[in-house]
Automatic annotation (TrEMBL):
CDD domains: PGDH. Residues 17-338 form the Enoyl reductase (ER) domain. GO terms for molecular function: oxidoreductase activity, acting on the CH-CH group of donors, NAD or NADP as acceptor. Pfam families: ADH_N_2 (PF16884), ADH_zinc_N (PF00107). This is NADP-dependent oxidoreductase. PANTHER family: PROSTAGLANDIN REDUCTASE (PTHR43205), PROSTAGLANDIN REDUCTASE 1 (PTHR43205:SF7). SMART domains: PKS_ER. InterPro entries: ADH-like_C, ADH_N_2, ER, GroES-like_sf, MDR_fam, NAD(P)-bd_dom_sf. Keywords: Oxidoreductase.
Amino acid sequence: MTQLQNQRIVLAARPDGRPQPSDFRVEYSAIPVPAEGEVLLENLYLSLDPYMRWRMSAAKSYAEPVGIGEVMVGGTVARIKHSRNPLWQEGDMVLAYAGWQRFALSDGLDLRLLDPGIAHPSTALGVLGMPGFTAYSGLLTIGQPKPGDTVVVAAASGAVGSVVGQIARIKGARAVGIAGGPEKCAFVKNELGFDAVIDHRAADFAQQLAEACPNGIDVYFENVSGAVWDAVRPLLNDFARIPVCGLIAHYNDRSVPGQQVDRLPATMHDILAKSLTVRGFIQTEFVDEQQDDFLQEAAQWIDQGKLKWREDIVEGLENAPEAFIGQLEGRNFGKLIVRLA
């Protein structure tokens, strides 16, 4: 690629089950020219998140699917390279939703100015960005942890789960994490300070989880579903709250009759018998009311050493598809970010 070209990755085909590299296509085009009122963004960091798998599907969901041949969606940290908008200056560092490409145009309405002196700009895509706010809003609004509660979170080493457990502890609850593999479990326990962490790959996973939750589970933050839900469900206390954020165990499911476990009858039984609160959510539901509070509190918690994070940095936009495929299989360790420049 030369300086006169824009590198971008588009959706080439809709996946059937696990995404394949052939479902993506790298393209090169002329760098777009901003019209009056627009700015040209140079993306520096790209966020990779599990929700993107849903956007690759044509199935009805909370957002429109990415069209075949369209640029893959995603949050970015960008620098304004050229401005024809009086509200934005060249050189401003911004949070955008510019997708899997090096350069993009914006009318400025979807941008958030970042502190030019921020030591780690990529945190605007993680602990101080959408994943962090997802954890904050879902846990506090739906989970409503109280001091002494047991809060269990799946994918506890990930961008959302890691923040959920730490906020639970800040609020006086007991945090139990579920992660995959000894290295991730050690990080959750020793670096993030969870009270306990269980490896979902262990042969006796369900037994270990029960032992880690002797008083049952008051809040379960769902990121995974599948076999993890099977172990969690019997431990839920009466009136437990379950924010449903993700179902990563099923994102690559194929629609093959008879191959999926039917968990609905047992789940519905417990919702009724235990008076459970189960609510799915998208973080944008809470942005207008809570985002300012989140940014203020999270920044304070970071300064106080109460909120920590880990990033998994991939170099080069051309490596985004393989990194994204690996994320759906648990290969990343921390918030997955592509460094573009």
